[in-house]
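#struct-help
A.M.: can someone run this one for me? Single chain, 327 residues.
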Amino acid sequence: MGDDEEKYDGMLLVMAQQHEGGVQELINTFFSFLRRKTDFFTGGEGDSAEKLVKDSFAHNKKLALEARKEKQEKEKQQRAKQAAKIAEEEKKKKDEPRIQEITDEEAEKLQSELDKKKREEEKSAALESKSPSKIDDDDKGSDSGEEDEKDKGKLKPNAGNGADLPNYKWTQTLSEVDLSIPFDVNFRLKGRDVVVDIQRRSLKVGLKGRPPVIEAQLYNEVKVEESSWLLDDGKIVVIHLEKINKMEWWSKIVDTDPEINTKKICPENSKLSDLDGETRGMVEKMMYDQRQKSMGLPTSEEQKKQDILKKFMAQHPEMDFSKAKFS
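D.P.: on it. Structure tokens below:
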């Protein structure tokens, strides 16, 4: 009966959270429903309805007491195991023939500070002797060491939160993407020389009679009617794409491009200060949730639900939620 008994827990918990008066108000709602929508009180003979309620109460009270007893027994056993484990660890520490003047945590912190100071001194000395390109290579090597395994090999975003590729470069904010595509020709380009086809989920760019520079699926959908392109100085095609989803960073323009590491994007480059209050709040919330997910922590919405549940449980310590399933 366990699964059948628990399948309504989610719905009932939501109902309970909406009853500020607590359990009494919740029970009154149940009986009010039975009174108004069924013949529960009048359909049976004598006190059959009252007997049914009492029998159900007695049955569930018995189960609750048994569950509490079982829980207490498990907690007692767990405490005993934990105490035995601690005692064993203490015994091992006493038996170790060594002198420990500082804790491991203090030693690790001290070593980390020394390593950091050493790196800063080495970098300062290197700045005087290395070329700018060499310094950039060293910085990239250092960054890659701190990247997650799945982010290895991804490009570091450029100053515009995009990428500088061999044939073109692109930048982005949360709401738009801009591409700059230079063409190596010995004449000034005109509109009739260029092929630019912007679709909701694809992009084609090139010169007539030549293989396209870009012809592939876009990373995500764009608003075609709000996207545009122009020629700059007769040599460069500049394309502006308006994102449909204004709450995400693109890791590439089209599916044939190498990906950038979106975790290294600098939010200040996206001009958050230029957004209105409501949009900025949504963007900051999205960025917070993204960081929380990457660390395996609850998002702002999940945290809010947990806080409501904790408050409700604190108000009603007599209720046992140990076997409840929440989504």
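A.M.: thanks! The helical segments are 2-6, 9-17, 23-37, 48-95, 104-129, 132-146, 277-294, 300-315.
D.P.: also worth noting: The first helix runs from residue 2 to 6.
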